[in-house]
Design brief:
By secondary structure, this protein is of the alpha/beta class. 45% of the residues lie in helices and 12% in strands. The chain has a seven-stranded antiparallel β-sheet with strand order 16-13-15-14-19-20-18, sandwiched between helices. The two termini are 58 Å apart. The mean pLDDT is 93. The chain binds flavin-adenine dinucleotide (FAD) and iron/sulfur cluster (2 copies).
């Protein structure tokens, strides 16, 4: 039985009082103080971890004004705050032990656009891709790019002065900020924009913090201008944090205080709104992928490509390329970066051209390709080939791969994981190749593994050396490499933080700025935040304060992970390996990635949140002396004894009376998961929540009783065949209001699906009956034409007509289909964490299916979510005992068959199941090819999760979220095309459409059957 866990559950009294006072003062935002909520923001993508005391999620600027004003009162003047957006920082920028103020959940509205004057005004929590999706119909985009564009916020971008691909042409975030609205720690609202210097001088007279700030910045930036100009490298990525130089224009007639705030890493105040310059989307784009025999060749060739007037030049090494080959992303890009026969591609430069004029782009491309052809013919410069594309979707796919590179690097096997700490160096581009050679020599001297990519046009290199920080010696190595990289970048005229900001690297600030300028920085910090209360320790501390800067040696995640035994870490690697890059926060509503995160906007309900909670739970159970793996073994082998059940009754009673246990918080996050497995397919590290969730549920229920609905769901494969013996009676009962109400109240189950009438056996009789002996004696000709249809509980008992149609289709195609007897698959048991039962079910099914595999006949299944369990969960549960049986999905098999022409043409829209799309990314393309083979048109529609996911949508506690998910990305295409024109591959999804729209759409096989 798992122990009760109560880590730091009691809150600091000051924080409790502050929370109460906030509500009394009219604050409307969320206040989260649970251990789980605090843990969810205790990490970013860095090596560090800091547990805050609370998380405040304001809804309005007024909320921030209330918060900061209240924090001025003597009772609360000790509380400190750190602003947070997407939490995608790579160096702990938003981490704090104080109070997190997260602007991403609510303050994410686009407020105003002025197309004529080319600007947009947004709240700080707006996500960069969200903004660009909004701007696209107007023909504009927000130009500074970053790899985390689908989850990083404008507030975060402003505060790290983010930039990325194309920065030579498109600049950094600071180049596009027209105005900022910032709430200062004293409750004043500071509005900044470019103005005449005399106006700034006028503002400097104001008798408040705003006046004080203007006075100090004017003094520091004007009086020390010669030192400032002399100090900073003349680089595109000159520096981040308090941009002393660009506050003024060249002749000092214009002044822009926003330049101090951009890149300030939340250390000066809370940015609530930004007015941003927007850029027209180039009409013509071309991407040339140039392939090299070595990474060094790719780097040395970059200046030539920049000189060839490219808009941007990006590079990746062979390591990144090879990792991409093993990822879901590869199927989208493989035709654009084909291998070159006889040579190994070791480096790739992605060269982009943008233009308003087609002729312009064509001239440039013609000149470049002529040069490339000559170079390839001469076998010089290490160029082995190139490919180009004008297709903007294809270009988007290539960049998506490049953007995923960091995540992919994180998916390295073994204890040493690629880490961010020197990952964004910038040197003058002409020094890059030599710098990298020396950097490589440094890493090679420590025998470290690493992959490299970067923005070679701007001299920015991304590298994450692989270290195991659980080994104290390697933690020391991190410090030593870090120091050496600072020296190396200085030697090549660059700087260590060329893109991502300083965070815990702030300790290098004094040496970089020099004492004189660093003192000015501190005076500016003091003018904004005299008592060091906003993101303390980052960038600099206020002048005259004895507070310390955060350091590279700050507390790391590894300090916590070291407490978990290696065997447990290895066993739960699908949660431990999450590196916090935040890809699972993907805002895009039509992407399958994490529906629960999208619908709740609660970080606990994301794959990262769940992985972090699991990690902490494993640490705490270990510290409580509990051996998780041994206990799992016991649970796998034994049922609970009477004594244990009695203990569970007592514990469950205590829980209902409010007895605290961290396990309840973990449970809450796990219960919100739809078990859709999008994370397992799309997370670059392959964090697989359903697999560790099932294990957690089993462990949790060794201490607490299960709800009745778990037993209903877990046993559905056993009860459905029984209920299907009297389907009319069962349906009659289920349709009674009092039964529905009783089911909802007693077991929390709603909209229970009705059984098929007539049943499958009534529909197909004995026509396709299974006879093993007969199958074993098939002639070669009969064998050729025989296929086996594997039943699943959902289609067979709730959608029998689909199974009957599948059998008819196979017959129509000239095959002799055999309907295998129904055998439980075990998925519902797995989802609810009945792992002992699941192992038995899987073992029985695997034995049967292996027996059939010996017949060497195709075995086909209809519902992907069940068929995929044979491939993944069976492997995990049974190991080698799983055998080698292979159940194909119908479309996988159909793709290899000769198909007749359709009788008439028809057009359909395909809405594919999210589990299927993420595990089998070729699904939509395969169905499309099958349809086009027979002369039908099928267009895939991008949709996320439908909100049903097995039984999730039928649980009363999830009903609201289930409907909201459907509305998010399904309702529109369903209404646009109509249920007769959409084809839906998932049983759950078809049921959800029926439940929320009224009509049940067809499976693609039914459209094929009708057309052939
Ligand atoms: C895989 C990966 C790739 C990356 N690639 C790039 C890249 O190409 N280019 C790039 O520039 N960066 C990159 N980054 C770094 C990171 O994504 C950027 O720094 C991003 O701008 C951070 O945005 P965020 O919303 O996640 O901010 P957070 O990480 O939440 O915060 C970043 C900093 O901004 C402050 N902050 C956030 N919101 C506010 C606000 N409203 N008011 C005041 N302060 C605030 C925080 O206190 C913190 O100091 C990458 C990170 C990862 C994990
Ligand atoms: S779960 Fe995966 S995608 Fe999400 S933060 Fe962790 S590693 Fe990144
Ligand atoms: S299974 Fe689906 S809902 Fe659960 S964490 Fe993964 S993506 Fe999110």
């Amino acid at each position: 039985m798992i122990p009760k866990l109560t880590p730091e559950l009691a809150l600091d009294a000051g924080i409790v009082a502050f929370s109460k006072a906030l509500i009394a003062a009219g604050y409307t935002g969320d206040i989260e103080t649970s251990y789980a909520s605090r843990l969810a923001v205790a990490t970013d993508n860095s090596v560090y971890q800091a547990l805050p005391q609370a998380v405040l999620l304001p809804k309005t600027t007024d909320d921030l004004v209330i918060l900061t004003s209240l924090a001025q009162t003597s009772s609360f003047s000790h509380i400190k705050f750190s602003p947070r957006g997407g939490g995608t920082g790579t160096n702990g920028q938003s981490l704090t032990e104080h109070v997190v103020v997260d602007l991403s959940r609510h303050m994410n509205n686009i407020l105003e656009i002025n197309v004529e004057k080319r600007w947009v005004r947004v709240q700080a929590g707006v996500i960069k891709d969200q903004l660009n999706a909004f701007l696209k119909p107007y023909g504009f985009f927000f130009a500074p790019d970053l790899s985390t564009s689908n989850r990083a916020t404008i507030g975060g971008m402003v505060n790290t002065d983010a930039s990325g691909q194309g920065s030579l042409v498109y600049g950094k975030t600071s180049d596009h900020v027209l105005a900022l609205k910032t709430v200062l720690i004293d409750g004043n609202v500071l509005k900044t924009h470019k103005m005449a210097t005399f106006e700034a001088e006028h503002r400097a007279q104001m008798p408040n913090s705003v006046g004080r700030i203007y006075r100090q910045v004017l003094d520091s930036c004007r009086d020390f201008r010669p030192q400032i100009l002399a100090k900073f490298p003349r680089l595109n990525r000159f520096l981040t944090g308090y941009d002393l130089e660009h506050v003024f224009n060249d002749d000092l007639t214009e002044f822009d205080l926003s330049r101090i705030i951009t890149g300030s890493e939340g250390s000066l105040g809370f940015v609530v709104e930004a007015k941003l310059n927007i850029t027209p989307i180039a009409k013509y784009k071309c991407l040339v992928n140039v392939k090299y025999d070595s990474f060094a060749s790719a780097l040395r060739n970059a200046p030539f490509l920049v000189a060839a007037q490219a808009t941007s030049v990006e590079t990746v090494d062979s390591k990144v390329l090879n990792l991409a080959r093993g990822d879901i992303i590869w199927h989208q890009v493989k035709d654009l970066i084909t291998d070159v026969a006889g040579t190994e591609m070791q480096g790739l430069n992605m060269v982009e051209y943008n233009s308003e004029q087609q002729s312009d782009i064509e001239e440039k491309i013609a000149a470049l390709t002529a040069r490339l052809d000559n170079t390839i013919a001469d076998k010089t410069d290490g160029i082995i080939g190139y490919q180009l594309t004008y297709d903007t979707t294809a270009i988007g796919h290539i960049y998506a791969m490049r953007k995923k590179a960091v995540g992919l690097l994180g998916n390295t096997k073994g204890a040493q994981k690629p880490l961010a700490f020197a990952e964004d160096t910038a040197v003058p581009p002409e020094n890059l190749a030599d710098f990298i050679m020396e950097f490589r020599a440094l890493l090679d001297s420590h025998n470290l593994n690493y992959g490299m990519f970067g923005h070679v046009d701007a001299g920015v290199l991304h590298v994450r050396p692989a270290l195991d920080l659980c080994d104290p010696e390697q933690e020391k190595l991190l410090r030593s490499i870090s120091d050496q990289v600072v020296t190396l970048t200085a030697k090549y005229g660059g700087l260590m933080w060329g893109e991502h900001g300083k965070g815990y690297r702030s300790e290098y600030g004094p040496a970089f700025f020099g004492e004189e300028l660093f003192t000015e920085l501190r005076k500016i910090k003091a003018a904004f935040d005299p008592r060091n209360r906003v993101n303390p320790g980052k960038i600099c501390t206020p002048f005259n304060s004895a507070d310390k800067l955060v350091s590279v040696d700050g507390q790391k995640r590894a300090w916590f992970d070291r407490q978990i035994p290696v065997a447990v870490k290895d066993s739960f690697d699908s949660s431990l390996n999450c590196n916090g890059n935040g890809l699972c926060f993907n805002y895009e509503e039509s992407s399958p990635m994490c529906p629960s995160s999208k619908v709740t906007k609660d970080r606990r309900h994301s794959p990262k949140g769940r992985a972090g909670l699991m990690r902490e739970w494993l640490r705490l159970t270990e510290n409580a002396g509990y051996d998780v793996l041994a206990q799992e073994q016991v649970l796998q082998e034994n049922r609970s004894s009477f004594k244990e059940v009695w203990e569970k009754v007592k514990n469950t009673l205590a829980k209902s009376q409010g007895d605290a246990d961290f396990s309840h918080e973990v449970m809450e996050a796990m219960e919100g998961c739809l078990a859709c497995k999008a994370c397992a397919g799309q997370c670059p590290i392959k964090v697989d929540v359903p697999s560790f969730r099932a294990r957690f549920l089993q462990l949790y229920h060794s201490r607490y009783l299960r709800p009745a609905k778990d037993y209903i769901v877990g046993n559905i494969e056993r009860t459905a065949p029984l209920l299907a013996k009297a389907p009319r009676l069962v349906n009659f009962m289920l349709k009674r209001k009092f039964v529905a109400s009783m089911l909802e109240k007693s077991v929390g189950y709603v909209d229970t699906p009705l059984l098929s009438v007539p049943t499958l056996s009534q529909q197909v009789g004995k026509r396709y009956a299974f006879d093993l002996a007969a199958l074993q004696q098939l002639s070669a000709a009969q064998h050729e034409k025989t296929v086996l249809l594997v039943q699943d509980p959902f289609t067979s008992f709730y959608e029998a007509e689909l199974v009957a149609d599948a059998l008819s289709l196979l017959t129509k195609l000239g095959f002799n289909p055999i309907l295998l007897p129904f055998l439980p698959n075990g998925k519902p048991q797995h989802v609810k964490g009945f792992l002992r039962d699941f192992a038995r079910t899987a073992s029985t099914a695997a034995q049967f299916l292996n027996q059939l595999q010996a017949l060497d006949l195709p075995m086909l299944g209809l519902d992907a979510s069940l068929v995929l369990v044979y491939r993944d969960e069976y492997n995990k549960a049974l190991g080698s005992a799983r055998g080698d049986f292979n159940v194909q999905l119908l479309h996988e098999w159909l793709a290899g068959q000769t198909l007749p022409n359709a009788q008439q043409s028809a057009e359909y829209a395909l809405l594919a199941h999210c589990t299927e799309k993420t595990a089998l990314p070729a699904t939509e393309k395969t169905w499309q090819t099958i349809f086009s083979k027979v002369g039908l048109t099928l267009k895939p529609v991008s949709v996320g999760c439908c909100g049903m996911a097995g039984t999730y949508g039928h649980e009363a506690q999830n009903l609201e979220n289930s409907k909201a998910l459907f509305d998010m990305s399904w309702r529109k295409p369903v209404e646009q095309f109509g249920t007769e024109q959409i084809l839906v591959t998932g049983f759950s999804c078809r049921s959800q459409v029926k439940r929320l729209v009224g009509d049940k759409p067809l499976h693609p096989l039914q459209a094929l059957l009708a057309a052939l």
